[in-house]
Amino acid sequence: MKAHRRQPLYLAFLLHRLSGLGLALFLPLHFYVLGRALAGEAAFDAALSWTEGPLVKFAEFGLVFLLAVHFFGGLRLLALENLPWSNRQKTFAALAVAVSFFVACGFLLRAV
Amino acid sequence: MQVSDHIQVKVWRGDASGGSFAEFEVPQQPAQTVLDVVTWIQRHADSSLSYRFACRVGMCGSCAMMVNGIPRWTCRTHVNKVLQDNHLTIEPLRNLPVIKDLACDMSEFFDKWKRAEGQFSGTQTRAQAVAAISPGEPARRAANAAIECINCAICYAACDVVNWNPDYLGPAALNRAWSLQNDSRDRRHGERLQAVSADGGCLSCHSQQGCASYCPNELNPTASIAGLKKMAAGAFMKKKYRDRHG
């Protein structure tokens, strides 16, 4: 990584961008699984049972993290652009990641 | 730790058509700045090296360069603070066309100040009394936070959006526009807001905050740009409301 980018708020930007791309890539799969319902109950149940596998559950942990980090990162940006300026930008970015990790771990604990 | 008495310096040499690094061995001195290193090279190793400086004390903003990949005032950067394994890499400022070696063409940087309506446009003449502005007024305080810019272009070199979109006005011009938007004596607030919220204006900022991280004057252009975004959104809402309700 270029030297001038080695600062926490660039990493926050990168995480927001990559999580957004990750979620966009996930959407077709999501719609495909939902779309299986059109092929009948059995096809849909088969798709759902596939999601019960441990690997898929772990991938879902990643997905929940992406969703949470994009959500909380987005809230941080909305606050930055719409609320009075605060100099605690790095703290807010770190908090967004920490809360997202907490949410994703909570999901994983419930899943196992 | 053993301090080497020489430092290895890579200096970018070339012009707008391209270039490459030249290597120099420079004697280390106590309290030596990066500008001292460049000056030593020009005086003792290669007199054809071009670079720009004036005041040497962090007042003029003309000696900014990329030092180990980070934009810095070379006159205020001590070598021992930035030395990496006894090596220094010095390049011209990023995002600006090079004239020769370490000297950049600042024209587009200042043209963007003009595009952002960066000039003060007053309503009064010198025959009238000086405008009374309380130092505690919120607008005055907002202007105050942005006003100490000396146009060194460090924020411009640190900004990835400038790199991705050459049309982007950049942090310095927008910061200047913000200080004028908070100047109650100025009469071109509407025109300036239009200029800075058009394509390539404040709405292009991705809030990576490299500008604020590296500004040697500790200004925060991102905060200024966020202020402009709020102003632009407010003006847009007001216009929508007026269009709908007359």
Helix segment count of chain B? 10
Percent of residues of chain A in beta strands? Answer: under 5%
Q: Report the end-to-end length of chain B measured between terminal Cα atoms.
A: 75 Å
CATH architecture of the largest domain in chain B: Orthogonal Bundle
Q: Calculate Rg of chain A over CA atoms.
A: 17 Å
Structure keywords:
heterodimer; A: 112 residues; mainly alpha; 80% helix; 0% strand; B: 246 residues; alpha+beta; Ubiquitin-like (UB roll); Fumarate Reductase Iron-sulfur Protein, Chain B, domain 2; 2 domains; two-stranded antiparallel ribbon; 38% helix; elongated
Task: Walk me through this protein's architecture.
- The complex is a heterodimer of chains A (112) and B (246).
- Helices cover 80% and strands 0% of the residues of chain A.
- Chain A is mostly helical and 112 residues long.
- Chain A has one domain (3-23, 53-111).
- The radius of gyration of chain A is 17 Å and the shape is elongated.
- By secondary structure, chain B is an alpha+beta fold.
- Chain B folds into 2 domains: 6-104, Beta-grasp domain (Ubiquitin-like (UB roll), Roll); 107-245, Alpha-helical ferredoxin (Fumarate Reductase Iron-sulfur Protein, Chain B, domain 2).
- In chain B, strand 6 and strand 7 (103-104) form a beta hairpin.
- Chain B is elongated, with a radius of gyration of 21 Å.
- The relative contact order of chain B is 0.12.
- The interface between A and B is medium-sized, with 15 and 24 residues.
Short description:
Chain A is an all-alpha fold. Helices cover 80% and strands 0% of the residues of chain A. Chain A has one domain.
Topology (elements, then pairings):
The complex is a heterodimer of chains A (112) and B (246).
Chain A: H1 8-35, H2 41-50, H3 54-82, H4 89-111
Helix pairs in contact in A: 1-3, 3-4
Chain B: E1 6-15, E2 18-27, H1 34-45, E3 64-67, E4 70-73, H2 79-82, E5 87-91, E6 98-100, E7 103-104, H3 107-115, H4 138-146, H5 154-158, H6 160-164, H7 171-181, H8 189-197, H9 210-214, H10 221-245
Helix pairs in contact in B: 3-7, 4-7, 7-8, 7-10, 8-10
